[in-house]
Amino acid sequence: MLERIVSKPTFHRIHALPVLAWQEILLVAGCYGALIGSCYLFLAGALPYGAALVINALAIYAIFTPLHDAAHGSLSRNPAVNDLLGTIAALPLFPGFTAQLYRFLHLEHHRHTGIAHSDPDEVMVSARMPGKLFVWAFIDIYWIAWYARQLKERPLPEVAGAAASAAFFIAWHGLWLASPFALQFILLWLIPQRLGLMLLTYTFAAIQHPEGVRQDQRPLQATRMFRGGWPMRWMTLSQSQHLVHHMFPAVPYYRYNAAWRLAEPELREHEIVWDWPVGPLRHPGEPRSPSSELPLRARVAEVVQVSEAVRAYLLEPAEGSPFPSYSPGAHIDVEVAPGRIRQYSLVSTPRADGRYRIGVKREDHGRGGSLAVHEGFAPGNVINIGVPRNHFPLKTDAASVILVAGGIGITPLLAMADALHAQGTPFRLHACARSRGLLPFGDELLAAPFAEQVRFHLGDDAVMPRLGAADLPAWSAGQHMYLCGPEGFMDHVTELASARGWPADAIHTESFITAASSAATDKPFTVTLARSGKRLEVPAERSLLEVLHAHNYAVPSVCTQGLCGTCACTVLEGEVEHRDAVLSPEERQAGSMTTCVSRAAGEGLLLDL
To answer: How many CA atoms lie within 13 A of 562 on its CB side?
Structure first.
C-alpha cells in the first residue's frame, strides 16, 4: 500500500524540499520574536506575568516543530542548513541539544514505537498519573539518561557531541541560577519551558500512540488521527495528522494534509484509530488485539505446492458462517503470527463452496511473514483473516484485456482470467517466470478452460522466450492492461507497452516490494567513504545500511524498506541499482540513493560520508 502511494507523481512533489521553506523560517522567527518580545514587555512593566507565561510556553511548544522536521531532514534539502536551523530551534527548548543528537533519539522512537525500553518516548504514554505529569515536564532529563544507557553502542564522535550537549545543558542552568537574574530566568524561561514541554509531550507523544500497540506489528493502529478538521491542525501544528508523519516521516509538517489527501483513498478500507485529543486522558483504553481487526476465523483446509517456492492455501470458514464474496483483484489480511499481519491476493473467482484460496511465496530473506506461513500453516490450523478488500479492481466494460504476471504476481490475475472467461471478454494472459519450476500455478493454467489464452514466458526456455514488445498488441480504445509483479519487472513491461502506444491510464498495476525478492541474486560490493577514505565490504546477504551501522556510521533510518527516504545518502561515483519507491528521477540523477534497499550495480560506490 505504501509503495503505491509513494510511487504517485503527486507524492514526489509533496516530498521535494526547498532550501528554505517560508513556513519553517516564519515559525522559528515568530517563536524567537514572541519569547524576546514578551520578556522585554514584562520587564518593562507593559505586560502582566500571566500573559508572558502563556506566550513563552506556547512559543517553546511551537518551536519544537522545526526541530522535529530537522530530525527527519525535512526542514531543508541542504543538510547543513537543515541541521543549523534545527539546532537554532532547539536552543530555547532543549539548551545544548543539537539537531543531530535529537535525530538519534527521535528516530529510535520511530523504529521502536510502542516497545518499552527501546522507544525513548514510550514512557510518556505508559507512565501513570500523577507521575506522568513529572515525566512530561522533565522529558529532556529522561532522554539524557536514556541516551547514557546507549553509549557503548554509539560512535565516538556522536558520544563526544552528546557529552558537549550535556555539559552545555548543565552550564546553562547553573550559570543562570547562580547569576543576579535567577528570578527572571525562573519566571520567564524555566517555568514556561516546563509548561511548554508538558504541552509538547502531550500533543506529540502521550495522546498519539495507544499504549501497548507496536508499530512493527500494527503500523496503522500504533498512531492516532485526531478529529477537528483544520482548527485542530492549526492548534497542533498538523500533529492531529500524526499518523501521516509516521507513514511518511520525510514529509514536512506543512504538507501533512496534502500527504493525507493523497493517502486517504488507499486507507479507506483500513481501520484507522480516530479520536479527540482529550479522549485518551479521560478514557485510557486498553489496546486492542490484532484479531479484533480480523473478524473472520478461517481453517486451513488444504496446502498444495504449486511451484518450487509457492504454496496455495485453501481456507474455509471455521465458525459456520460463509465468507463474504469478493471481486477479482481483491486481497485479504492474514495474521501470519501473533500480532503480525500480511496481505495476500485471492486466487480465482469466488468459489461455489464459499472458500478462499491464497498463494504464498517463501522468501527466506524477507521480513518473516512468508516463512511463518510456510512453516506454521498446516491443514486443520485455525487463523484470523480480514474481509476482502480490492485496490486492484477489474473494469467490467473493457473491450479486451491483457493480463501480465511476473512470478507470484499471477495470483490476482488468475481471478481476473476466470472472470473474463466467464463473461466472454476477449483477453490474453502472459505468465512470466525465470524457469518452469518457479512458475506458480503452471499446471492449473495448462488445464484451465481458458488455457488457449495463456502464453508462458520463461527465462530459461527458448521455446517460451521472455516477454517482448511484439507479444503485446498495439493499443486501441477500450483496451486495458493489468500488470502484477516485482517493481523492476513492471517497469520493463510498462516500457514495452508504451512502445506499443499504451497510455498510462490504460495500464493498471499492483506491485510487491522488491528488496526481499531480489535478495537471492544480490552480489557483494565495496563502498568507499569519501570523507575518511575508509573502504567497507557489503556482503550479498546484508544491506548497505546494516554495514554502515555495524561500523558505527550513524546514518538515520526508519522504514528500512525504501519507502521513506530517511536513510538516503549521496553517491559521488559508481552506478546504483535503485530499489526504493520514494526517490524521484531527479533525486536519483543528482546522486541520492536509499541505503536500506538499493545496492551497487557494479563492483563499488564512492559515498559522500
So the answer is: 25
As a whole number of angstroms, the distance between CA 59 and CA 53 comes to 10
Distance CA 394, CA 407 (A): 20
Query: Angle of helix 64-71 relative to helix 22-43, nearest 10 degrees?
Result: 150
Cell readout for 502 is 499504451
Identity of the highest mean pLDDT range in 266-275, 353-362, 514-523: 353-362
Per-chain mean pLDDT for the chain: 85
Q: Please identify which residue in the block is written with the cell numbers 478500507.
A: 269
User: Going by C-beta distance under 8 Å and a sequence separation of 6 or more, which residues neighbour residue 359?
Assistant: 306, 310, 311, 312, 313, 344, 345, 347, 408, 410, 411, 440, 441
| 213/287 Cα distance (integer angstroms) | 6
Specify whether the CB–CB gap between 366 and 290 falls below 8 A: no
Please give the model's pTM, rounded to 2 decimal places.
0.58
Pick from 202, 222, 204: which is nearest to 212 by CA? 222
Inter-helix orientation angle 22-43/49-62, to 10°: 160
Question: Smallest Cα–Cα separation from 326: which of 416, 443, 246?
Answer: 416
pLDDT tens profile 517-559: 445 467 889 999 888 888 899 988 788 988 888 787 777 776 6
H-run or E-run covering 568:
strand 568-573
What region does 267 belong to: left with phi over 0, alpha with psi -120 to 50, or beta?
Answer: alpha
Dihedral sign for Cα atoms in the order 164, 170, 173, 178: negative
Mean pLDDT of 590-599: 88
- At residue 17 the predicted structure's pLDDT band, cuts being 50, 70 and 90, is confident
Through-space distance between the first and last CA atoms of the chain, rounded to whole angstroms: 32
196 closest CA partner among 407, 82, 34, 359: 34
Name residue 594's beta-bridge partners. Answer: 568
User: pLDDT tens, 133-160?
Assistant: 898 899 999 998 888 888 887 888 888 9
Do 342 and 333 contact (CB within 8 A), yes or no?
yes
SS3 223: coil
